[in-house]
Amino acid sequence: MEEAGTGRELAAYCGLYCGACETYRAWKEKDAALLMKEAAESGRPVEEIRCDGCKSADVMFWCRQCRIKKCASGKGLEFCSECSDFPCRLVLEFEASRSHHEGVARELRRIREVGVDDWVREQNGKWRCPHCSSRTTFYDERCRHCGLVMKDE
Questions:
Q1: Which whole-number Å values give the CA distances from 79 to 13, 37, 101, in the listed order?
Q2: Residue 62 near residue 70 (C-beta atoms within 8 A)
Q3: How far apart are CA 31 and CA 39, in angstroms?
Q4: What is the pLDDT of residues 74-109, one digit of tens each?
Q5: DSSP of the chain, one letter per residue?
Q6: Using one digit for the tens of pLDDT, what is the confidence trace for 43-59?
Q7: Preceding peptide of 45 cis, ω within 30°
Q8: Can you give the pTM of this predicted structure?
Q9: CA distance 70 to 59
Q10: Other beta carbons less than 10 A from residue 19's beta carbon
């Protein structure tokens, strides 16, 4: 299933690629099992498990409260890497907070280097199963479609 739009809404202010987020994938693919898993893990009703990407009008509850998003958008920036304080304490703390946040400063530098459109294309290719080309998430150990082992279990 291909999403509508340019993909820029999937390039978060912080350098994450929203297209590899479990919540985003669950919502876009209407994956009932993944929606239920996300609801259970977040403590939210399944009806609230929806997101169209960081820069869209419809984001998940934790993204609505994101300090990085608030800071960057408040400064009129498209990405944190455009800020004279980059990488700031907020970015460095975020990067250390969860395993899928690791490397966001590097990704922000990559966006600056190649441009957001090329970066989104790179990420779109990176977050796919090498066997069946199905989209994957930050935490998939196996492809949810063909079962290929992608990370050591």
A1: 4, 30, 15
A2: no
A3: 12
A4: 999 999 999 999 999 999 999 999 889 999 999 999
A5: -PPSS-SGGGB-TTS-BGGG-HHHHHHHHT-HHHHHHHHHHHTS-GGG-----TTSS---HHHHT-HHHHHHHHTT-SSGGGSTT-S-HHHHHHHHHSGGGTTHHHHHHHHHHH-HHHHHHHHHHHTB-TTT--B--TT-SB-TTT--B-S--
A6: 999 998 899 989 988 88
A7: no
A8: 0.88
A9: 13
A10: 23
CB < 8 Å & 24+ apart, contacts of 100-104: 100/16, 100/20, 100/138, 100/139, 101/14, 101/16, 103/15, 104/14, 104/15, 104/16
Q: Token match 């700031």: residue?
A: 88
What is the predicted pLDDT for the residue at 82?
A: 96
With beta carbons less than 8 A apart as the criterion, state whether 101 and 16 touch: yes
Checking phi first, is residue 108 left (phi over 0); if not, alpha (psi -120 to 50) or beta? alpha
* 23 contacts 60 by C-beta, under 8 angstroms: yes
Tokens of 48: 């609230």
